[in-house]
Amino acid sequence: MSAKLEALSQNLQQCLGDRVKSLKLAFGEVTLEVEAADYFSVMQALRDEPDLAFEELIDLCGVDYSAYGNEAREGLRFAAVSHLLSISKNWRLRVRCFAPDDDFPSLPSVTSIWNSVNWFEREAFDLFGIVFPGHDDLRRILTDYGFIGHPFRKDFPISGYVEMRYDPEQQRVIYQPVTIEPREITPRIVREATYGNAENA
Amino acid sequence: MPELRNFTLNFGPQHPAAHGVLRMVLELDGEVVMRADPHIGLLHRATEKLAETKTWIQSVPYMDRLDYMSMMCNEHAYCMAIERLLQVEVPIRAQYIRVMFDEITRILNHLLWIGCHGLDVGAMTMVLYAFREREDLVDAYEAVSGARMHAAYYRPGGVYRDLPDRMAQYQESKWKSSAQIKPFNEARSGSLLDFLDDFASRFPKLLDEYETLLTDNRIWKQRLVDVAIVTPERALQRGFTGPMLRGSGIAWDLRKKQPYEVYDRVDFDIPVGKTGDSYDRYLVRMEEMRQSNRILKQCIDWLRQNPGPVMSDNHKVAPPDREAMKSNMEELIHHFKLCTEGMHVPEGEAYSAVEHPKGEFGIYIISDGANKPYRLKIRAPGYVHLSAMDEMARGHMLADVVTIIGSQDVVFGEIDR
C-alpha cells in the first residue's frame, strides 16, 4: 500500500483513538468502522482535525446486510456507508456505521457537519427506512408520493407490491396489486473460495 | 390593509426548462424566490436494485441510461469498480481508447449543455450549432459500438472491440445525388481516427464561433453574471465537484489529482473560475471543451502508432474471441460460463470515481462473491448539485431559476436513477 494511505491510517488512529472499531486497507481504499454512539463525534473530528481535513462528503448510502453471502448472517442489519474526500490532503475514506436496532434503525444526522448529506440521508431513509434524528426535513425523496415500504431492503420484492394504471370506468389513475410475477433467469450463486481449483477435481 | 402572503408556484415537471422531469415548488414574494423545493424521483427506475438481480455484465447497458448525455463516462466508473475488485489489468490501448471516448463524451455533454442552456436563457441559435457538431461525435459512437447513444462499449477488462478501419458513408438516394453527398463523405473516407482527427482540427474554430455568439453578448451576460454565486467554502460544504467546484475557484480535477487510466500521460490544463457565478461556470465548461479537444488529439496520435489488444486475456472476466471459441474446447467452456452464469467478483467493496462531465461520478460496489452485485450505489454529481438549488436560488428572481438549472447542468437520468 502506498505511503499516503499508511499516513492516513496513522492519523486516523492518532486522532480518533479507541473510537476506531476497525480500520481496513483494501484495494487502495481505507475503510473505517465506528460504533453508532461515536458516529457523530467521529464525523465531526474527521472534518475538523487538520491532520484529516475531510472537507467534502461525497456520498452516503444505506446498505441492508441481511442477505449477505451464503450463510445466515449474525449481527446488525442496516448500515450507513459514507465516502469522504479531502481536497487539501487528496485522500478518501469510507466510514461505515451499523444502526443499533434492526426494527427501527436510527443514526444521528450529520447535516450540520456537511450540508451535502441532506438528500443522501433522505434517500437512505426513503429506500432503507434508516431514520436520522437531527435531520430537519426527513421526507421521502425518490419514491412516489404516498409510497408504502422501503424498496431497497432485501425483503422487498423487485416487482414491488402495487402497480398503477388508468381505470377508464372511474376515469382516474388507480393502484392495484401487481399482476406480474418476478422471474429469475440467472440464479444468484456464491461459489466457495476453492471452486474451480485443479487440485479439487 | 390586506395581509400579504407569499405565492407558491409549481414549476414543472412538464416545463421545457426543467430539463426532463424536475418538479419544483417555489415560494415567491412578488418575483423573488424565497424558497425552492425540488421534488425529484419522477424518473426513478431503481437502477441500483435492478442491478442486484442482474449479472455484472448485464448491468453495463443500464449505466448508459443514467446520465443519458454522457453515456460512456458512466460505464467507465462501473467497469473500473469491477476491475478494481477483480484486480484485472486493462491493456494500454484500451486505456487510451477509454480516455479518448471519455473526452468525446465530455464534448458531447458540454455541447448539449451549451445548446440547452442557451435555449433556456433565450439564445435560440446555440442549440442548432451545437447539435451540428454533436452529430459527428455520435457518429463516432456509432462506429465503435453500433449505437448512437447507449453504447455499452466499455466492458470490464477493456473495451468491446478495436476501433474500426472505416466509417459509414452517406448513400446516394432519391433526394441526394452523388455530387451532393460527396463533400459529406470526404472526412469519412478513412478510418475512425482520420474522421476524429478531422473533427479535432475543425473544432477549436467552431468553439470560437460559439464564443462570439455568447461570451461578450450583452443579454447573455445580463442573465448570467452574478447569478447564483457560490463561494468556495459553500461549494465544499455542499459537496460540489467538477465544473461547479472549479467555477468557484477550487482547482480540483480527478483527472489531474487522482489520475486513472492514462490521464497522467496526456497534457491538459484545468480551467478555474473566479467569482463562482453562472457566467464563470459557463467559461469553465467552454474551456474544458478546448482542453478535451487537446486530449483527443493526443490520444489519436498515440492510437495511430500503437496497435495492440483492447481486451484483457483473462477469460474468467472477458469472453474469448469468436474464432478461438469455435475451435478450442477450453475457450468454449469459458464462453459458456461467462454467458450463462457470468463472472464472479471476489468478496469486497470498492468505490471508483471518474471525472464525469458534470462532476464526480462514482460507483460504490459491495460484492459478496456472487455473480451479481450485492449492493450498487451510484453517486451522481447532479443529485448533489440539485440539492443546493434552494441555497442558490434564494433571493434571485424567478427567471434566474432557469439560469441556475442550466448552469447546474442537471440530467434526470442520473439524479433519479
From TrEMBL, chain B:
Family in the record: Belongs to the complex I 49 kDa subunit family.
Assembly and interaction partners: NDH-1 is composed of 14 different subunits. Subunits NuoB, C, D, E, F, and G constitute the peripheral sector of the complex.
Alphabetized UniProt keyword annotations: Cell membrane, Membrane, NAD, Oxidoreductase, Quinone, Translocase, Transport, Ubiquinone
SUPFAM superfamilies: HydB/Nqo4-like
Coarse class of the protein's main subcellular location: membrane
Catalytic activity: a quinone + NADH + 5 H(+)(in) = a quinol + NAD(+) + 4 H(+)(out)
Domain NADH-quinone oxidoreductase subunit D span(s) in chain numbering: 120-417
GO cellular component: plasma membrane
Function according to Swiss-Prot or TrEMBL: NDH-1 shuttles electrons from NADH, via FMN and iron-sulfur (Fe-S) centers, to quinones in the respiratory chain. The immediate electron acceptor for the enzyme in this species is believed to be ubiquinone. Couples the redox reaction to proton translocation (for every two electrons transferred, four hydrogen ions are translocated across the cytoplasmic membrane), and thus conserves the redox energy in a proton gradient.
Subcellular compartments: Cell membrane
Protein name: NADH-quinone oxidoreductase subunit D
Recorded topology in the membrane: Peripheral membrane protein
GO MF annotation terms: NAD binding; NADH dehydrogenase (quinone) (non-electrogenic) activity; quinone binding
NCBIfam families per UniProt: NuoD (TIGR01962), PRK06075.1 (NF004739)
EC number: 7.1.1.-
